[in-house]
Write a structure and sequence with these properties.
Strand content: 25-35%
Number of strands: 42
Distance between the termini: 90 Å
Helix content: 25-40%
Number of helices: 22
Shape: elongated
Largest sheet: 7 strands, mixed
Structural class: alpha+beta
Length: 843
């Protein structure tokens, strides 16, 4: 927010240097990002704070108030004029092409001089004909045969705004010859208003902070109005149908207005604050919004009468009907959502409440009567409306952060009086004021012990009361405590512990964060507790990264259509998704039920760019919970792999593509490093995997997930060809519950191993894991290791048979094994394979 110092001084006396004031505000939570000087002298380099300093100082000797006495034609140029100008010392002939002087050309001496900003020869100004802010020095020259050495200035040349289309017309009472810096020199603080300080998004709000920080009294604005018109009673009615969304609505009426330009000092302040002046009516609403923080809206009262058939307008506050249309002030025809709150009459919508007015009832050059609105709106609904309409406005910015209902009446009173003064209108007596939901603020009790514990500083109850009184809190001293009641312009002070925390922030700001001493924590630390789930997730992440996979984080928001890409045609009734009331995008409207679709989209986007992609993700899915409004949130681990088994390098690698067994190897190694006991892989057939290349991972009797090669149907849906895509998705709690945190360590044996190979012929349908299990059981403790190293099928062993060759390692921790012991173990293995599996040794 841009805050002109001259405007700020209307409400609080300032005797600090501007750069010091900026530093004080920054330390109190109102960060001043830049100080822009418009005429006032810039601070010396050594006294400047870290805040950015910019702008132009006006030399009092060369830049003064001038008075144009006559506008004459240029003898050699139609687009230029010559002005007789008095600068307080003598008369000059000034050459200019300012278009706003052409209406006065050739009229002879003006009945009233036009006061302007006049720059003498040698003045330093910004070049109005170049983009950006480039300084120039006025020098004597001839233009079309006429001597030129000075100029009447535009706002751009003085550094007030970007406007350079015409020269500045000052107010008629500007003293001719006065240095311009004395008449209108200013500086602007550009303050970053954070959400917790939204109450200060106004000149009065910043002045309140300055008064509290400097100890100066706050000059409250006047809310007195010259009521000289007929009463407003009976000339319009008000019906609030959504009091929860509109706790207060106030209307005032002013008649006989003229939408003429507002006074120059008003226009100058608006421009310095970043707003474009339009006319006295619209400027009045914008001026009050910037001054008090209360947005206003002006309706053309005669248009409302016409829409009501000549009868008194009936103003309704209601929700929009789904699909209802309203053309707003920016010219857009907006289709409204059913949660949008409208200001309407019997003919339809008039404005989007708290956001933007409608074009039909806006103020125009023909407006003579204005119905002025000041209201308060529920800030969450305003945020929702701004997001749905993809629009931003100054009013929406303030209402979406919270404006107290008490400000509605004050804003209308202040706006009516300014309009009366600037337009010559007559204000109708009284207001139409509906306040169905008054704010009930609860007092908060603060003790010196609270302040010492929370902030680490010692303050007495009276000192606490004094600090808060500066910010207009109502305080009452009690025995050893202060009862605090928030002022009626603040909505950000909670109750109970929350309110206490809010007050601690205020006390800390007023003391000064830079004055709070640094102390070590002296409170008792809470008992340390482990977080097995989080620790297990982190261990799993590290393991997957060591195995060569890259972690991905995909959107938790998706759409049913995105997830349907990994499903065949649905059968029966589909479980309901959890739909978002305010989705971030049209294609992300529900919470996901799978992680794999997000990873597949990542594969789809990157497959043509990378020869090998191996990703994993740990995150929640949201499953319907019977009879419950909220879903069950379940953590999952998902893996996708595709591409070459080894990337090209200077050493030869495996040129093949990743397949099912590469994925199985990753999962086996993961289970090994997590020390999951006895995981097994079981044949399965589930979507979206290819039958025959799909397996379930079981831990004990429980299946914790599925893995396999993606079916070609789904490969086509993701426009993937060539390398197969391997995928897996597991229930994370099931995996982590099986993880062993403690393991038994066995010392390395000092005795030599005995190595032996064993090839057996079994039925083709028999899993190799079953064969391995029989071997381990029969061998007992002497079997240290077993590894399948060959699988063979062919005519030599017969149809429907396969040969499995294992490398066996025998070892004892107490002695060297003899040939007889090893022979005995081998015989037990062969006998068990023959009896339990019908296996035979391969000859």
């Amino acid at each position: 927010m841009k805050v002109p110092i001259s405007w700020l001084k209307d409400f609080v006396d300032i005797d600090l240097p501007i750069e010091v004031l900026a530093q004080r505000l920054t330390l109190a939570g109102l960060e001043v990002e830049e100080i822009r000087f418009a005429g006032l002298p810039l601070p010396a380099a050594e006294s400047r704070p870290g805040t950015k300093i910019s702008g132009l100082a006006w030399d009092p000797a060369t830049i003064v108030v001038g008075a144009i006495l006559e506008v004459m034609p240029h003898p050699n140029a139609d687009r230029l004029v010559l002005c007789r100008l008095l600068d307080g010392e003598r008369e000059h002939t000034v050459l200019t092409g300012a278009p706003n002087l052409f209406p006065f050309k050739g009229q002879g001496p003006l009945p009233e001089p036009i006061r302007v900003a006049y720059a003498r020869e040698g003045a330093r100004l910004y070049d109005g004909h170049k983009s950006g802010w480039e300084l120039m020095t006025l020098k004597r020259s001839k233009i079309r045969g006429v001597d030129s050495y000075s100029m009447a200035c535009s706002e751009k040349e003085l550094g007030i705004s970007e406007d350079h289309e015409g020269i500045i017309f000052l107010d008629a009472d500007a003293p001719t010859g006065m240095p311009l810096v004395e008449y209108m020199g200013d500086a602007v603080l550009d303050i970053a208003i954070t959400p917790n300080m939204a109450r200060n998004a106004s000149i009065l709000g910043v002045a309140r902070e300055v008064a509290a920080l400097t100890g100066k009294p706050l000059k409250q604005p006047s809310y007195e109005v010259a009521w000289t018109g007929a009463p407003i009673a009976g000339r319009c009615s008000l019906d609030i149908r959504e009091p929860d969304l509109n706790p207060r609505f106030v209307l005032g009426l002013i008649e006989g207005v003229e939408p003429r330009p507002s006074p120059f000092w008003v226009q100058r302040r608006l421009r310095l604050a970043g707003m474009r002046p339009i006319n006295a009516i619209v400027d009045g609403t914008n001026y009050v919004m910037l001054e008090l923080g209360q947005p206003l809206h002006a309706f053309d009262y005669d248009v409302l009468l016409a829409r009501s058939g000549g009868g008194p307008p009936e103003i309704h506050i209601r929700r929009a009907q789904a699909g209802e249309l309203l053309r707003t002030l920016d010219g857009e025809a907006r289709r409204l959502e059913d949660f949008t709150v409208l200001v309407a009459d019997i003919a339809g919508p008039l404005s989007i409440a708290g956001v933007m007015g409608g074009s039909e009832s806006e103020v125009s050059p023909e407006t003579r009567r204005v119905l002025l609105e000041g209201a308060c709106w529920e800030f969450i609904n305003i945020r929702r409306t701004l997001a749905s309409q993809k629009v931003s406005s100054e009013a929406g910015y303030r209402f979406s952060r919270g404006v107290h209902p008490a400000m509605a009446e004050r804003g209308v009173l202040r706006g009516l009086e300014w309009m009366r003064r600037w337009t010559g209108g007559i204000v109708a007596q009284g207001l139409v004021d509906s306040y169905p939901r008054p704010v009930q603020a609860e007092p908060v009790r603060v003790t010196p012990a609270d302040v010492e514990r929370w902030l680490g500083i010692r303050l007495s109850a009276s000192e606490i009361a004094d600090l808060l009184e500066r910010l207009e809190f109502e305080v009452r001293l009690e025995t050893g405590a202060v009862a605090v009641h928030p002022p009626d312009h603040r909505l950000d002070i909670g109750s109970g512990v929350v309110g206490l925390a809010d007050l601690m922030e205020e006390i800390g700001r007023m003391v000064g964060y830079d004055r709070i001493p640094e102390t070590l924590i002296r409170d008792r630390l809470p008992a340390q507790r482990g977080a097995p789930d989080i620790e297990g997730e982190e261990r799993l992440r590290q393991t997957m990264a060591r195995l060569g996979l890259q972690e991905a984080v995909t959107y938790r928001l998706t759409s049913p259509e995105r997830e349907a890409r990994l499903r065949l045609a649905p059968t029966g009734e589909e479980p309901a998704y959890v739909h978002l009331a305010n989705p971030i995008a049209a294609d992300r409207t529900v919470l996901r039920r799978q992680i794999l679709p997000g990873l597949m989209e990542a594969i789809e986007r990157n497959a043509r760019l990378r020869e090998r992609i191996t990703l994993f993700e740990i995150g929640p899915v949201f499953l319907p919970s019977n009879g419950q409004p909220l879903p069950e949130e379940v953590m999952r681990l998902a893996v996708v792999m595709t591409g070459r088994r080894a990337l090209p390098g200077w050493q030869p690698g495996d040129p093949g593509t990743l397949d099912f067994f590469d994925l199985k190897g990753v999962i086996e190694q993961l289970m090994s490093e997590l020390h999951v006991q006895a995981p097994t892989f079981q044949p399965a057939q589930v979507e979206p995997y290819l039958p025959g290349k799909c397996a379930a991972l079981a831990v004990g009797e429980a299946v914790v997930g599925w893995m396999g090669e993606l079916h070609p149907i789904f490969m086509q849906r993701y426009a993937l060809a060539g390398s197969p895509v391997l995928a897996a998705e597991f229930d994370l709690p099931g995996v982590l519950d099986a993880m062993q945190l403690r393991q038994d360590l066995v010392p390395v044996s000092a005795f030599p191993p005995v190595l032996e190979d064993l090839a057996v012929v079994v039925d083709d349908s028999l899993p190799a894991a079953r064969v391995e299990g029989v071997i381990r059981t029969a061998a007992g403790s002497l079997l240290e290791g077993i590894q399948l190293f060959d699988v063979y099928q062919g005519e030599q062993i017969g149809a429907g048979q396969k040969s499995l060759a294992y490398s066996l390692v025998y070892r004892s921790g107490q002695r060297t094994l003899t040939d007889e012991e090893v022979r005995g173990v081998r015989q037990r293995i062969v006998q068990a394979l023959r009896e339990e599996l019908g296996a035979s040794l391969r000859q």
